[in-house]
Specification:
Keywords: Membrane, Transmembrane, Transmembrane helix. This is DUF4367 domain-containing protein. It is a single chain. The protein has eight helices and 14 strands. The protein is of the alpha+beta class. The chain has two domains: 64 residues, no CATH class; 252 residues, no CATH class. Strand 8 and strand 9 form a beta hairpin. The termini are far apart.
């Protein structure tokens, strides 16, 4: 038996033999909540919140499982309260036929949603690959009046900087309060993942979905309002804003990407950022995605800016032109 397997076996045996009193978990949770200033479970994504003894043991076993060895960190960006990580993982590269099937399913499901509605979509194939198996799909309401969108985002988020320069041939098309495809916060993922996984098993279907409850006026960092620009050839560029309130506890944003993705450090208006090129993006109509990302602090909040395009005809300089023109 290899030393890795031996350690893994011993750790699992040890974990199963532990019988600490329940009061110990409660005291640990209380102490860590006090240190992280988290007073109640939050709906925000990826909080660095308390972990009980059992969760810590599970994390140790995960490190010995071999999954962690297949990952490679592409970059980390960090502000006072927000840390963003992009990690490569072999499992995140899907076969072309599976990627096409998932893209078509997302398109079909969105077509059944009314403007402003969202749905949670479960994929058994993503589950098999140990990837996040749940997606949030939205049919975002389109704002063709930029000033009206600015009024809404200022009310619900913070005043956003918008582009003052565009690549040749590009023009404003619409604005949205949510992204068509977005991530899911930890609490919601836990709630709907189990529900939809059981539904998929009972129906023997690879993909199942359910409409999301109306969020009312509540907003979340997962909403990601944005601006969409296009040229005469139908190529699109999006500017997305992910806002983390200054009232939140520290937040981690973890994103997985395939092994073919490359990342380069860039400067955006004097701030460090990263340009990435993914030629095997699972939900891109073209199969590719270029992205420019950076963090900024504003009015006590942290904003993750992303300028993206699924077109390979748009250059890195085009994305930087937009990013550096934000005012």
């Amino acid at each position: 038996m290899s030393i890795e397997n031996q350690l893994k076996t011993e750790l699992q045996q040890y974990a199963g033999a532990l019988h600490a009193p329940s009061q110990l978990d409660e005291r640990i949770a209380a102490l860590i909540r006090k240190q992280t200033r988290v007073t109640a479970p939050s709906l925000r994504p990826g909080k660095r919140k308390y972990a009980t003894r059992a969760a810590l043991i599970a994390a140790c076993i995960f490190l010995f499982s071999g999954i962690a060895y297949a990952s490679s960190l592409l970059y980390t960006m960090q502000s006072d309260k927000v840390r963003v990580e992009l990690t490569q993982q072999a499992a995140a590269t899907l076969p072309a036929n599976l990627s096409a099937e998932l893209t078509q399913s997302v398109r079909d499901i969105r077509g059944q949603l009314a403007s402003g509605e969202s749905a949670y979509v479960y994929s058994a194939e993503l589950e098999k690959r140990k990837l996040p198996a749940l997606l949030k799909i939205t049919a975002p309401a389109a704002y063709t009046n930029l000033d009206a969108w600015k009024t809404e985002t200022k009310k619900h988020f913070v005043p956003f900087k918008t582009p003052t320069a565009l690549p040749a041939g590009f023009a404003f098309v619409r604005a949205e309060l949510e992204a068509p495809v977005s991530g899911i916060d930890a609490a919601t993922y836990e709630q709907f993942h189990s529900l939809l996984r059981k539904k998929a098993g009972a129906a023997n279907q690879a993909i199942v979905w359910q409409k999301a409850p109306s969020a009312g006026k509540a907003v979340s960092p997962m909403d990601m309002p944005g601006l969409v620009y296009a040229n005469g050839d139908g190529e699109q560029i999006e500017v997305r804003y992910q806002v983390f309130s200054g009232d939140d506890a520290a937040t981690d944003v973890h994103t997985l990407t395939g092994e073919s993705t490359t990342a380069d450090k860039v400067s955006v208006s004097g701030k460090d950022g990263y340009y990435t090129l993914n030629r095997n993006h699972m939900l891109s109509e073209t199969g590719a995605m270029q992205s420019l990302a950076w963090l900024e602090s504003q009015d006590g909040s942290t904003i993750l800016y992303q300028v993206t395009t699924p077109s390979l005809k748009v250059s890195q300089d085009d994305l930087l032109r937009i990013a550096n023109s934000l005012q």
